[in-house]
Design brief:
332 residues, alpha+beta, Immunoglobulin-like, 7-stranded mixed β-sheet, 6-stranded mixed β-sheet, transmembrane, signal, transmembrane helix, membrane, Gram-positive cocci surface proteins LPxTG domain-containing protein
Length: 332
């Protein structure tokens, strides 16, 4: 999520480019009447905020800002009709589930102060009831140091042919691990995940979340279409609706919390006496890593050409919503 300062800077930049620098004027500078109405509450975070209202005569533009507490989390602009009415939909991609308010400033080109201003009653931003089954996801160990390894496991529903495994910090926008796998014959997925950086995203000590998304590539949507949707979602170029997520082939998803600890600093080994040339040193048994025994029944198969990129995108957007939001997304 964007920081308060970043959101405010983005809003100020937007207004400056549009020539609307007076939006931040105090309320007493807007004596003329204006109205704003929120379409419905709770508001679906993925669908955006639908608002409408009226502005005083002479207004040319309505600028809507959405706040949660003192944070500006969204803004948008629309033209005012000659009748003084306006309506728009504001992207809530940077908002969090919770209470918010929307304010409209009615502006006229060439003037510095708003002609009118109004603020809505508080409304609730919420997550949709995702149309997927929830599966139980396990993480072992549940406390791991940076640089260590965890095993993330789950059983996908019968018929699942694809799966994506993701892990990220609870408050991060991006996953530091995204793996694509094919479930084993019994639907089982068990994947070793290193707590290491990936594509510039580094794990940080603190609360973290693992996600497994299962899917079926026999759905009517082609893999190419799904991959394109997944790419848009990962890039967060525009908000996607719950329906769009459903179209991206998931059959089930699940979450599990774990904790990342600071990296373990390895002690410096003492320097021993110089050995004669040709001497072979055998490390102590405790220093030799144990072999990882292969399971009797494979928990995953090699990739066979299927493209689960859309599933990874679904998991990525859920991680971007934050740990608290993820837990609220679970079906009752």
């Amino acid at each position: 999520m964007l920081s308060t300062r970043a959101r405010t800077t983005s809003l100020a930049t937007f207004l400056a480019v549009a020539g609307l620098g007076a939006v931040a004027a105090p309320a007493h500078a807007a004596p003329s009447p204006a109205t704003i109405t929120v379409g419905s509450s709770p508001v679906d975070l993925f669908e955006g905020l639908k608002v409408s209202g009226t502005c005083p005569n002479g207004s040319g533009t309505a600028v809507v800002t959405v706040k949660q507490g003192s944070d500006v989390v969204a803004f948008g602009t629309t033209d005012v009709a000659k009748t003084g009415t306006w309506a728009t939909s504001v992207d809530l991609w940077e908002a969090d589930p919770g209470t918010a308010t929307a304010t409209v400033n009615c502006l006229s080109y060439g003037t510095e102060k708003p002609l009118g201003e109004a603020t809505s009653a508080p409304f609730t931003i919420d997550l949709p009831d995702f149309p997927f089954d929830e599966i139980e996801v396990g993480v072992t160990p549940q406390r791991v140091a940076v640089g260590g390894t965890i095993t993330v496991s789950a059983t996908c529903p019968e018929g699942s042919t694809l799966a994506a495994v993701l892990a990220g910090n609870e408050d991060a926008d991006d996953a530091f691990v995204i793996k694509e796998v094919v479930p084993g014959p019994n639907g089982r997925v068990s994947e070793k995940v290193g707590i290491t950086g990936n594509d510039g995203v580094e794990p940080e000590p603190g609360p973290a979340v693992a996600v497994i998304v299962c899917g079926d590539d026999s759905q009517p949507m082609s893999q190419l279409q799904g991959a394109r949707k997944g790419a848009r979602l990962l890039a967060a170029e525009k908000p996607l609706t719950a329906r769009a997520l459903e179209d991206m082939m998931p059959t089930a998803l699940g979450f599990a919390d774990f904790t990342i600890l600071p990296a373990v600093v390895q002690p410096t080994l003492p320097t021993g006496p110089t050995k004669a040339p040709g001497t072979v040193t055998t490390p102590a048994r405790s220093a030799i890593p144990a072999a990882d025994p292969a399971p009797a029944t494979p928990d995953r198969l090699a990739m066979t050409g299927s493209d689960p990129a859309p599933l990874a995108a679904v998991g990525a957007v859920l991680l971007a919503l934050g740990g608290a939001a993820i837990r609220r997304a679970r079906r009752a």
